[in-house]
Amino acid sequence: MAALSITNLLTNRTRMTIVPRAVIKYKMQVPYELKQSQSRLFHELPSGLKMEVIFQKGRLDQDEKSQNPPLVFIHGSFHAAWCWAEHFLPFFSQHGYDCYALSLLGQGESDAPSGAVAGSLQTHAGDIADFIRKQINLPPVLLGHSFGGLIVQYYIANIGNEKLHEKEGLHPYLAGAVLVCSVPPSGNSGIVWRYLFSKPIAAFKITRSLAAKAFQTSLPLCKETFFSAEMENQVVLRYQKLMTESSRMPLFDLRKLNASLPVPPLKDSSIKVIVLGAHDDFIVDGKGLSETGTFYAVSPVCIEGVAHDMMLDRSWEKGAQVILSWLNHLKRGETE
């Protein structure tokens, strides 16, 4: 049913490839099993490479026409579209929102480009723009987590950028942007230096966990890095396996990335932004959260009882409810 509905939805747009589960050649050795009413689609980019899209249509009453903006979800490092499909896609589709979770190139079931890294801020944002331009009928809300949040920041900074339009294509307008435990506009270098001087043990653990990828083999370290202490070990183990398989290549060359930062300020002040952080975030500290809020002139919302992977954590509903409330205010024009 979901495959038919997405085909009908995109009648006037560029068609996405809908591949039956039985014939998918999974790139992840531990493939993510979709939930009921979800479809795995593939959007072909101008390069010919295909991006995985997990889609879940918003539920509406009979004969009701949705006025809700579509939601497009962008993951961070060591994740893919599945991290949104677990809880957030069912939650927001239940509230009437069409939901699209993308796997960036080289991640999840998406194709991998040639080279050592998956891309840059510019290329990842350009791929997202191509998807929105060709597949989405209404201005969407773009939601990004961690380094995915930094990609969203670059995207919104370049809406209406004519010079970029000439090189990469227009970044379509958005209804809004949601930054979830996002890397701040200046990047993660400030966080790293603060941790080195104020929390050297935490700095060592984060470096070992992420740079050395020790989270892939140490369940306690994976749990401490991404999840709350109350998270059940068997659930963490499942996510650990999925994260290990999600990134076949790094999202960025971090040296080149840091040299390109900070992201430019917003050119269009009409774009509404909400900044969410997690009280128990082991990766993005409070100053990083404050930096992002100050940059966009909004008061950041810090969610108690959740860690960095807010959308997967035990109390994921807390963040989802805050976002839903903001979306409801956005429709009524009541956001900051």
Automatic annotation (TrEMBL):
Q: Which residues form the AB hydrolase-1 domain?
A: 71-314
Q: Which Gene3D superfamilies match?
A: alpha/beta hydrolase
Q: Name one Pfam family in it.
A: Abhydrolase_6
Coiled-coil spans are none
MF terms (GO), sorted A to Z: hydrolase activity
Reading the lineage from the top rank, the first entry is Eukaryota
Spell out the InterPro entries in the cross-references: AB_hydrolase_1, AB_hydrolase_fold
The entry's protein name is: Pheophorbidase
Q: What is the lineage of its organism?
A: Eukaryota, Viridiplantae, Streptophyta, Embryophyta, Tracheophyta
